[in-house]
Amino acid sequence: MPDISPDLFRRWYRSFEEDTDDQAVYRPGDFPFPPSRAPRPSLEFRPGGGYLEYAAGPADRAVPSRGSWEAAEGDGVRVRAGAGSRVLRIVAHDAQVLKIRK
Amino acid sequence: MDNADIVETPARRRCGTEDVHRRMLNESLNYRLNRAAIENLAFAFATGEEQPARAEVATIDVVVHIVHSTDEQDLSEEQIDGQLAVLNEDFRATNADVKNVPPVWQGLVADSRLEFRRASVDPDGNPTTGVTRRRTSKASFSDNDAVKFSAQGGTDAWPADRYLNIWVCRLSGGLLGYAQFPGGPAETDGVVITYTGFGTTGTAAAPFNLGRTTTHEIGHWLNLFHIGGDDGTGCSGTDFVADTPNQAGQNFGTPSFPSITCNNAPNGDMFMNYMDYTDDAAMFMFTHGQILRVEACLAGPRQSLLTAHP
Predict the structure, then answer these.
(1) Among A26, A11, A18, A84, which residue's Cα sits nearest to residue B140?
(2) Model pTM?
(3) What range defines the domain where residue A92 resides?
(4) Spatial distance between the Cα atoms of B59 and B66, rounded to a whole number of angstroms
(5) Within an 8 Å CB–CB cutoff, is residue A73 touching chain B?
(6) A38 vs B142, B179, B250: nearest CB
(7) Which CATH number characterizes residue A80's domain?
């Protein structure tokens, strides 16, 4: 069981600039990202198992794929969105940052 | 008696949910039908079956909704005027940097014969400066359209058949702006620009301080697509415009000419087009083919904007 606190339940935007070799870093929307015409990929966990994955759309806003999340083994969270399913390994998260193993 | 209430309450809730569901399905179906009609008209213009009939320069009435959570975000009148001045250059091809278009494409530079001005009459018929301002408790807005509703901390749209709505706020996730294509719901119609990407002075910050984010988003609002074709970095996507070269993905920063992708040598990508993703200083043209799509849009879904005022 991953250690999940309510801090996880928000929309997280990829902060590529902060990635390390083995971790993908995500930040909440209010984080001072450098501005960009393209929307950053983002993902959103909701209490009760709802999950959304956002990708760039044709009018510069992100387009969500709706799905679900559930706890998996160890620090894993299985997410389903669109046609795919994968396991995210959450290394750490609080209200300011979410780190997922690459 | 109590039991009857208990049974009835969830029954009502199901009805409510069903209503919302039906409304969303209807809106989605309407949107798809609207989009098909709009693209059919654009295709008729592109093939010459329909011709632009508009003789004169048209002016679009604009309302700028400033939605601010700090004093800094409450942009000055000067900053708003600076943005409108940029639009009136870019859409008339009178921008000074149009001379930087590579010689091979100079002949493609197009004047949309569209101008923009602050609305002078509000939806109730009263005089207005064409600007609304409200303080909000929301530190930022995402791309979920909350900024377009007073009840969600934003400002309600003015009637989309008479005004171009431009919302300026702090967008979250670092997003510079986003738009709605023609054919969508009136209550969310318009463009949203982050306060650091609007105008040329005040809060506008380099490299997005020449007002081109608003030019780009209004391009979408007039039915233009990204010239990269919205298929990621593939070569099969299209912007449905014949005179923009096929190119892979969007470009960023300030590329050097030529930038070759998708076998488009020798001239490469038209990265200086307003519908690419380059920095403000690196984009400075629409093409004739793009403006033909704009003409189709003005003959179709946005026709009422041209006749909304004397």
Answers:
(1) A11
(2) 0.93
(3) 6-101
(4) 22
(5) no
(6) B250
(7) 2.40.128
